[in-house]
Amino acid sequence: MDLLLLTSEASPDAVLTSLTLLPHDVRLAPSDTSSLVNAAESDLVLVDARTEIANARSLCRLLDSTGARVVAVVGEGSLVAVSPDWGIDDFLLPGTGPAELDARLRLVAARGAPIEPEQSDKVTLGELVIDENTYTARLRGKPIDLTYKEFELLKFLAHNAGRVFTRAQLLQEVWGYDFFGGTRTVDVHVRRLRAKLGSDHESLIGTVRNVGYKAVKPTGASRPADESGSGEPD
Fold it and tell me: Hey, is 90 helix, strand or coil?
């Protein structure tokens, strides 16, 4: 994506620490009205709102009036000042991690540029449809309320339906190398996903005893969540 970052800083990572880790083109411009002419050339406009809140709010409102997609970077202590009249599409904290940052930027961009059907990147598992471009999952056409990590875990399993992964592998693939929690984190998220899928579809996530988990490709009949008994991997 082509990102325009309005800031007085000399580098993008001074505003968003993870931004330079992502494969996006970032252009810097001053945080004033002279930069409005560049907004139309960008997929998204990021506004450095960590300081000078009043000026940032005015700039965001002006950008919104041009039809630009606007994301404000706000310090945690200034969140109380953010309100709907800013006209922003989303806000970010300066320390937002790279995976979450990329997902939220893509989601905002997707709202501004509807994806053609042939461009839509969807994964289907029975009656479950996962749309990576909009970060949504639907079951029988109804949206499922998932957290970011729940979505990432479900997406990864569905992408690799039929393949078994250990909890350690899932931690590495979904949570990343820098995650310091235990493997039981995977069990907790699987339980939550099954609960949200409901009793009729919880078997989409199967347990392979003593090994791990996999996404189960539905056949004609419903299959149990645990292929060799109930519960989690030992």
Answer: strand
Reported pTM: 0.49
CATH number where 94 lies? 3.40.50.2300
Instruction: Reply yes or no on whether the pLDDT at 115 is more than 70.
Output: no
Comparing 150 with 68, the larger pLDDT belongs to: 150
What amino acid is encoded at 207 in this protein?
Answer: T
Rounded Cα–Cα distance for residues 160 and 138 (Å):
18
Residues 168 and 78 placed together within one structural domain of the fold: no
Residue 202's SS3 state is: helix
Residue 146 and residue 137 in contact, taking contact as beta carbons nearer than 8 Å: yes
CA distance 81 to 104: 21
Those residues with Cβ within 8 angstroms of residue 117's Cβ, 6 or more apart along the chain or in another chain: none
Q: How far apart are CA 154 and CA 174, in angstroms?
A: 10
Same structural domain, 90 and 132:
no
Range of the domain at 68: 2-112
CB 5 within 8 A of CB 29: yes
